[in-house]
Task: inverse folding
């Protein structure tokens, strides 16, 4: 069953009618724009699957998902996947659920490792042409759990000058962060690697008998912050979080911005920094001339 029309006179049984209130109440200028927006999510595990579900329920136009893993019974301590999906690839299981929640969304699902040569090339191609009408994707979100995959996304997004969100939950589930990366304008993942990731990455090099705590609460909170900032970015309201860090024991949040590192080891990051500095200079000159 298709949901008809997202115009002003939305029917009460339309799941979007309540979202459209955001427009009537003056929060968002044009909520319908969400239907033309596209988001690419790498990793549909504990955080990425919930983010994908939130965006789907918000009426996103198109979603591209990557993951190389299968649904396991051990994932039931998280949200989203069900025991009936055990054995399916995460991307196929996710696509099925998301498509039934919102029949109007377009979903591309890739059971792929983005750190292999072919996987990485595939990812770059989808960022460039994965939008609703073959244009560039609007936003990339990283919900992976390891350093190599984050570095691959970082390199690709620096190269393509693509805005992306990074996220992470610590192994003991007591801290989490999201970070908004604007190439050349904010620190990239190689400019300054968040402490939480460095810590959790040490543990990602599998240790015998150690298992991630994976609380659905911390993962759900993190997915919520990612989705909220994705909406703010796509629909242009409020302020973006930049680095939003969460301490679960203290229920304490910090929010700050990290400037890019002029000595970043990523060549493409330094190139973006130089370009943006020129743009800034030009903008200032333009304003002075007016
Ligand atoms: P845990 O690490 O807690 O045992 P997990 O592996 O499911 O569980 P999550 O943090 O829930 O980890 O999700 C991260 C997701 O990112 C996983 O589904 C994983 O398969 C995916 N992922 C990680 N690296 C890559 C990669 N290189 N390419 C594609 N997907 C990846
Ligand atoms: Zn950098």
Result:
């Amino acid at each position: 069953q298709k949901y008809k029309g997202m115009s002003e006179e939305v029917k009460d049984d339309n799941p979007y009618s309540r979202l459209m209130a955001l427009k009537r109440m003056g929060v968002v200028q044009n909520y319908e724009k969400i239907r033309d927006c596209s988001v690419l999510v790498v990793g549909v595990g504990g955080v990425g699957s919930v983010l994908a579900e939130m965006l789907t329920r918000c009426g996103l136009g198109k979603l591209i998902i990557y993951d190389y893993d299968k649904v396991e019974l051990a994932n039931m301590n998280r949200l989203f996947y069900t025991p009936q999906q055990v054995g399916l690839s995460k991307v196929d299981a996710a696509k099925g659920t998301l498509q039934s929640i919102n029949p109007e969304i377009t979903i591309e699902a890739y059971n792929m490792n983005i750190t292999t040569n072919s996987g990485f090339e595939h990812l770059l191609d989808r960022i460039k042409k994965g939008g609703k009408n073959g244009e560039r994707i609007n936003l990339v979100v990283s919900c992976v759990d390891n350093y190599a995959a984050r570095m691959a996304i970082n390199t690709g997004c620096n190269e393509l000058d693509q805005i992306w969100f990074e996220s992470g939950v610590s192994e003991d589930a007591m801290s989490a962060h999201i970070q908004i990366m604007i190439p050349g304008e904010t620190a990239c993942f190689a400019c300054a690697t968040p402490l939480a990731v460095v810590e959790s990455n040490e543990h990602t090099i599998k240790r015998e008998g150690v298992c991630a705590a994976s609380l659905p609460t911390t993962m759900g909170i993190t997915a919520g912050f990612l989705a909220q900032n994705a909406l703010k970015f796509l629909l242009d309201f409020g302020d973006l979080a930049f680095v939003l860090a969460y301490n679960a024991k203290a229920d304490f949040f910090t929010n700050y911005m990290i400037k890019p590192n002029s000595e970043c080891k990523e060549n493409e990051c330094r190139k973006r920094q130089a370009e943006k500095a020129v743009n800034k200079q030009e903008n200032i000159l333009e304003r002075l001339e007016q």
